[in-house]
Design goal:
The structure is a single chain. The protein contains seven helices and four strands. The protein has helices at about 1-15, 15-25, 30-55, 55-65, 85-90, 125-140, 165-175, and strands at about 105-110, 120-125, 150-155, 175-180. The chain is globular, with a radius of gyration of 20 Å. It has a two-stranded antiparallel ribbon. Helix content is about 50%, strand content about 10%. The chain has about 190 residues and is mainly α. Helix 7 (about 165-175) links the parallel strand 3 and strand 4.
Amino acid sequence: MHRNLFTLGYLLKRPEVIRYYNEFLRTQFLSYEDLKAMQEEQLKKIIHFAYENVPYYTKLFEKLGLKPNDINVIKDLERLPILTKMIIKKNWQDFIPRNIGKYRYVNGSTGGSTGEPLKYRMSLEDYERGTALLYRGFGYAGYKLGDKVAVIAGSSLIPTTRSETKKKIQNFFLNTRHYSSFNMSEQKL
């Protein structure tokens, strides 16, 4: 029964999660060559998007004397410097895509376990893909959509922006319970 409620919940709120989940199940056992070809196609798309829309990458490519077509395969990524939290913080405005108004996105933040939390935004499409990949990953351990899940996490992983009623409804459909790791005790566990 919970599998049906779980699927219904996502079909009503975020139907793309189920579509991506099914796509990832279908493609997960493709050959290495086929998976690499798919990844490199996606790489080309994201490099072109970043160059054309994200000021930081436009400037970086110009500084390095690169064009988007110079990055075609995974090995080509070695031509780009490693992106750090410090670079993102120093250039925050340059990471906002020029065409951000065309996209729906969610804001997030890291937990700050290595110091100061890093705030970020993620397209709704990437968020939905990430959720689908999470469920597929759970499946490697035997999880099936709608199985009970207990999430024990710090505050950055437990959403707090929704009303209590919305959280309860979502948790019911997803068959999930959240517990804070900060006040975890043997009795609560």
